[in-house]
Design goal:
Layout: E1 2-4, H1 15-22, H2 43-52, E2 59-62, H3 65-77, E3 84-88, H4 94-101, E4 105-109, E5 111-113, E6 118-120, H5 122-132, E7 136-140, H6 152-160, E8 167-171, H7 175-178, H8 183-191, E9 195-200, E10 213-217, H9 221-230, H10 238-248, H11 251-272, E11 279-280, E12 287-291, H12 297-306, E13 309-313, E14 322-326, H13 330-344
Parallel strand pairs: 1-13, 3-4, 3-7, 7-8, 8-9
Antiparallel strand pairs: 2-10, 5-6, 9-10, 11-12, 12-14, 13-14
The protein binds pyridoxal-5'-phosphate.
């Protein structure tokens, strides 16, 4: 079965990652990390501190980005009377679910469809922040499932709409596909007191099974308390931290793979974009959203199942005639395109 429905990695890890695992000294599992004696969490957070030029104590580590996001939502929505979180209208189901776990209130802010993409409605968002005064504003860039992203200036603009009472939680799980520039991360968390940026090794670095996420926080007393809350006092998984560093060092390998994904985007747009009833949205992540004629839904589902391919047929109000397809290896992308053409090309 080809699982192109969950935004995983259908390629090989880098040679550095493979070597790190093969050469790992298993004796390290007999001990907690030693770096803890220096007041640091992990060799991985220390590496990130150098890479992003942000102090180690302002780096969060977690069991995937899901853990970073859950910690932040659980902490800030239960720390006082305000338990309101704003999330994008179309977004990952998980945001609402982690707020529900602590009886938080979730409200959706507008995201609208453009000619070839989706867009945050900045004016609508501003008004909602003023009216609702949320405890957390969750921003996803790139957003799942719509695939649109924000520039550093747009992120800054959104943060400026909030007062210090609102935590701006930015889910950047797919951000490395959008740009290789990471310098803005420091600028955002240094310039504002209320920002958390969450990233992961699961998407661009292709290691969803490793379960390693990381984040960056602003400088404030409140954020320091949150960092202590989310910290793990006996350190982190000693193999994962080494594999994580190896992955971050293999940018070139993963950029090459991102180029294969660019080719796939082009193919889908060229071959499906002008078919009647189709729309191929611009995507800056490792997946692409495609609108198809709704009357073909069942035939498409049958055809995909018959070929042992899974893609995600969206099934939400106002987003039910789209499918989200993970960008995979060249032959997988070709196959998906052919399955769609076999059903939809007259
Ligand atoms: C928007 C978004 N954020 C975060 C995650 C989860 O990342 P992780 O594997 O690091 O928990 C996903 C997974 O699909 C996602 O779509």
């Amino acid at each position: 079965m080809n699982f192109l429905d969950r935004n995983e990695f259908n390629f090989q890890p880098s040679q550095e990652v493979i070597n790190t695992i093969h050469n790992f000294d298993i004796g390290k599992f007999c001990f907690y990390t030693r770096i803890y004696d220096q007041g640091k969490k992990s060799i991985f957070s220390e590496y990130l501190a150098g890479m992003f030029d942000i102090e180690e104590k302002r780096i969060l580590l977690g069991y995937g980005a899901e853990d970073i996001l859950k910690n932040a939502v659980h902490y800030f929505l239960t720390k006082g009377p305000n338990n309101k979180m704003l999330i994008p209208k179309f977004s990952w189901w998980y945001y609402k679910s982690i707020a529900d776990e602590v009886d938080g209130q979730t409200l959706q802010y507008p995201v609208y469809e453009t000619e070839d993409s989706f867009c945050y409605d900045m004016e609508g968002l501003k008004k909602m922040i003023e009216d609702e005064k949320p405890r957390i504003l969750l921003v996803a860039s790139p957003n799942n499932p719509t695939g649109n992203g924000l520039t550093p200036d747009e992120l800054d603009h959104i943060i400026n709409m909030t007062s210090g009472d609102t935590i701006v939680l930015i889910d950047e799980a797919y951000a490395a596909f959008l740009s290789s520039d990471i310098t803005y991360v420091k600028h955002l968390v240094d310039a504002h007191p209320n920002v958390i940026i969450s990233r992961t090794l699961s998407k661009f670095y292709g290691l969803p099974g490793l379960r390693l996420g990381f984040g960056f926080i602003s400088q404030s007393e409140e954020m320091e308390k949150f960092a202590r809350f989310s910290n793990k006092y006996l350190g982190y998984d000693r193999l994962s931290e080494e594999v994580g560093i190896a992955a971050l060092k293999s940018e070139g390998h993963y950029r090459q793979i991102a180029n294969v994904m660019d080719e796939a985007r082009k193919m889908y747009t060229e071959e499906l974009g002008s078919l009647p009833g189709f729309k191929v949205y611009k995507s800056v992540a490792n997946f692409i959203l495609i609108k198809y004629p709704i009357e073909k839904k069942e035939a498409l589902q049958v055809a995909f199942a018959g070929e042992d391919y899974k893609v995600k047929f969206m099934n939400e109000p106002a987003l039910n005639q789209q499918m989200r397809i993970t960008l995979g290896r060249k032959e997988q992308n070709r196959k998906v395109c052919d399955i769609i053409l076999s059903i939809c090309k007259q």
